[in-house]
Amino acid sequence: MTEFLLIHGSCHGAWCWRDVLPALHHAGAKARAIDLPSHGTDPTPLADVTLDLYAEAILGAIDEPVILVGHSMAGFPISAAAEKAPGKIRALVYVCAYAPVAGLSLVDMRRAAPRQPLLDAIVKSKDGVSFSFDPEKVRDKLFHDCSDEAVAFAKARLGPQPILPQATPITLGNRYRSVPKRYIRCLQDRAIPAEYQATMTADWPADRIDTLDCSHSPFLAAPEALAGLLLRAAG
Questions:
Q1: Which of 43, 76, 46, 41 is nearest to 58 (CA)?
Q2: How many angstroms separate the CA atoms of 49 and 26, rounded?
Q3: Any idea where the AB hydrolase-1 domain is (predicted)?
Q4: What sign does the dihedral 53-56-62-66 (CA atoms) show?
């Protein structure tokens, strides 16, 4: 049976997949979502979180090989996990995510984007360890096509994001390259520009790329459509 492990992006938690998991289960797939260290209900202190710790948390949640799905920032930790243990991963699926380049950090890649639409919504902590999203701006930046209920649900659960994992250059080699990959571009994305998603995957085979006409939060804006594309990736 196909099994999915869903990994959230910055400031989110396993909660963001609440509408995708039932759709996958209804289709007969096994699917789980986890909180990365310091996110959701995980108690890890923000200052202790590293990119390597993210990868180890993902691998620790895998018993049998899974299709590993990463949203946004999670493109980095799912890739790091694949480099560490490719045998645990049937395929990587990037959902409007950073598709890493070896030797670069997420911060490096964000700065290389043609636009920085999310920058004015980021509030850095006084100690410099983390950042959060400005609650007055998240609807426009992340959830503009989501229901009022979904936006309220998300805003009540967004938390701080450790900066160190995003400032750490990633090491990728043949182990990572051996894992099959797919990408889902979100055409109305106001966080990672849609044109940058296209740039990051410009040399990927066309049949490994899908699109959704929605915001940066397809798990709340178009959960059934997203689940359908994930099932297609499994096929």
A1: 76
A2: 35
A3: 4-227
A4: positive
Burial label, 85 (beta-carbon count in 10 A; 0-12, 13-18, 19+): middle
Q: Is the pTM of this model over 0.85?
A: yes
For residue 56, the one-letter residue type is E
pLDDT less than 70: residues of the chain: none
Q: How far is CA 11 from CA 122, 135, 154, in A?
A: 11, 12, 10
pLDDT of residue 224: 98
Residue with tokens 């805003």: 155
Q: What angle do CA 98, 103, 107 make, to 5 degrees?
A: 45
Cβ atoms 92, 79 nearer than 8 A: yes
Q: Write the CA distances from 202 to 92, 138, 208, integer angstroms.
A: 17, 29, 11
DSSP 125-190: -TTSSEEEE-TTTHHHHH-TTS-HHHHHHHHTT---EESHHHHSPP---HHHHTS-EEEEEETT-T
What is the per-residue burial (b if ≥16 Cβ within 10 Å, else e) of 7-36?
bbbbbbbbbbbbbbbebbeeeebebebbbb
pLDDT recorded at residue 235 = 80
The span from the CA of 24 to the CA of 6, in Å, is 11
Go through the domains of the chain in sequence order and give each one's CATH number: 3-234 (3.40.50.1820)
Cβ neighbours, 10 Å, residue 88? 19
Distance of CA 139 to the CA centre of its chain: 18
